[in-house]
Input
Amino acid sequence: MTLRQAGISDLKKVLEITEKVVPIMRAAGNTQWSERYPNEERFLEDINNGTLFVYEEQEIKGFVVIDNNHAEAYEEIEWTLPGNDTMAMHRMAVDPDSQGQGIASKIFQSADNIIKTAGYSGIHTDTSLENKVMQNIFRKNGFHFKGKLHLDDNQDDWYVAYEKLLYDTGR
Output
């Protein structure tokens, strides 16, 4: 029951989970992920950067990327904390066979500890406007909506930004 840094040997399971969640996301009207993104090359880069983490309970049940890659569009959001006081979270998924068991919350709890230990005060993240499931999970785990943004040139493709403060900042 831990979140740990992923290695090359974890890639197959991460890709399997991704392949399982994409059709579920599509069926819910969420086009954020596809057969092309995120892909093996993207996850290999995350592994090589030491930013992909997997959550295990006997086997890998989910994953998340934790890094300092704050999208340029984040500069347009009125965050409580500046980017240099936070880490960003990306590409999170829970194996559909394990959904509904609180795995996402366990991933967030473990991520909070990793981020605090690294000396950061909060988390910035985003998801597709259509990804209502992830937005609910964010709110359930102490994240606050901070605004809407575009992450690419498609002006019809909206994302929503969320922030979590890991310490009482008095702000």
In short: The two ends are 33 Å apart (CA to CA). The chain has one domain: 2-165. The chain has a mean pLDDT of 93.
